[in-house]
Design brief:
The protein is mostly helical. It has helices at about 5-20, 25-40, and strands at about 95, 110. It has a two-stranded parallel ribbon.
Length: about 120
């Protein structure tokens, strides 16, 4: 299999078509099937080893400006971004500028992303 710009573009188009592949979503399952099909097309066999995962869905979230007590809109958690106890997380927000940002330690990262409509699937 040759890897050239056209091949990489085709893979990128397929990944874009599948969409965000969050763990245990329909898109994640479609991606796994796509990979299995690709392996089989190359003449190899594949074996699936199913396993169960504990899936945590974020039912609610809220961010408050401590100075004003006002809610901060248009912000939300990233699925599977970490394990949080029942009390949640409290901390100063900081825009993420890169992994070498020394001032990021101990802060809650704010990352600009485009609006993605993700549906919940089981």
């Amino acid at each position: 299999m040759d890897i050239d710009q056209a091949s990489l573009a085709a893979w990128q188009a397929k990944l874009k078509e599948i969409g965000p592949r969050l763990t245990a979503t329909d898109a994640h399952h479609r991606f796994i099937q796509f990979l299995q099909d690709q392996i089989n097309e190359l003449g190899f066999s594949s074996i699936r080893f199913p396993f169960k995962i504990k899936r945590c869905l974020q039912d609610s979230h809220h961010l408050l400006d401590e100075a004003t007590g006002s809610p901060i809109s248009n912000l939300g958690p990233v699925p599977y971004s970490g394990i949080t106890d029942k009390n949640g997380v409290t901390g100063q927000l900081r825009f993420y500028h890169g992994k070498n940002d020394a001032e990021m330690k101990g802060k809650i990262a704010v990352i600009k992303v485009r609006d993605l409509m993700l549906r919940r699937s089981f």
